[in-house]
Amino acid sequence: MSDDAPRMTSYRPYLLRALTEWINDNGMTPHILVDAGVQGVRVPPGAVREGKVVLNIADRAVVGLQMDNEWIGFTARFGGVSQPVNVPVGAVLAVYARETG
Fold this sequence. Notes:
This protein is mostly beta strands.
């Protein structure tokens, strides 16, 4: 491979968006598993268990979901209080449907 070949962007954010859309289209509830120790992760500390956090990213569970090539951001309720959530795409360990795991 030549050093002149263009560098491709990461496929991770594209797969994350596609899987989330597919889960939604099938009437299920998308969740992401996040490594809370990654720099830039902003989640309520009380939601973190063993260094990880599971986030429900269904449209009915969040407000203003934004998923770009670098970040996932939204507002969600934790313990009845709305809080902002920001997650670098690289901190996402898994995406799955709650109903099927």
